[in-house]
Amino acid sequence: QVQLVESGGGLVQPGGSLRLSCQASRNMLVTDVLGWYRQVPEKEREWVATSRSGNEETYADSVKGRFTISRDTAKNTFYLQMNSLKPEDTAVYYCSFRPTFTTTIYWGRGTLVTVSS
Hints:
Elements: E1 4-7, E2 10-12, E3 18-24, E4 33-39, E5 46-52, E6 56-59, E7 67-72, E8 77-82, E9 91-98, E10 106-107, E11 111-115
């Protein structure tokens, strides 16, 4: 079992930046698959970004060039740096963690990001 705790959400103006953090309750391996998703009311959860093998990162087209996923294995924590935020980025953001060579995905409880003037 892995517990994930997100932090860093909040209210930010359009064009601003936020960094979300997700801390895992166990040691993080460079080969663990880490991800971020987001969800708005009455819509499906949307994939945002994935980090594999420490340096293989992929992004949804809607955030490419603005968001960056990264990890710090020494702190068992991974991040989502969000720049040039837009009102349409407003959502509850969830981190996900798939341990190496498993199919089980663990989820955080979510952190709310609101982009508004």
